[in-house]
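thread: overnight batch results

M.L. [08:02]
morning all. the overnight job finished for the chain we discussed friday. pasting input first so we're all looking at the same thing
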Amino acid sequence: MATLTVTVTESVTLNGAERGSTNSRSITGVDDIYHRIVTLADDLSNATLVSFKQSGVTGADGAMARDNVKYVRITNLDTTNPVILNLQVIAAMDDTAGDQNAGILLEAGQSFMMSKISDAIELTAGANDIDNVANLHDLESIMADPLSQAVKVEIFVASVVA
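M.L. [08:03]
and the structure it wrote out:
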C-alpha cells in the first residue's frame, strides 16, 4: 500500500503582488492505480476512458471498484483543442449501467478532478431539488468526445484497500 499526494498550486503576479495558493492532500492505503494516456481520434465519439463497477464485479472488464476510488483526474494534453467529458451516472435503482449523463467541456491543457465517485453526483429535476443528499448517485464511467480534432488525454485513478 502507498500514499498518493496530490498538490494543486496557483501562482500569479497581479499589480506587482504574488497571489495564489498551494493545497495538498494525502490519500493513504492506495493499492490500485489506473494510469493511461489515450489518443482520441477525430472521428471517435464518446470513447470510454474509465469505468467503475460495484466491489466484487471489477476485473472482468478492467473496471475500478466504485466504492474504493478516492481520486480521479482527466487532463486534456492538447495545446489547442477542447474535449467533452461525459460523466455517465447511474440514476436507476438497478445499479448496472449509466442511464443519465452530464457533459463537461475540458479546454486544452486543463484538468478535471474528483475525489469520490460513489454517491457523488447530484441529479435534479428542478431548482427545488438542489442540495438533497437523496439525489446523489454513482458514477458508472467517464467517456470523452474529441469533437472535430484528435486529442490526447491522460487518465489517472487511484483506489484504496476495501
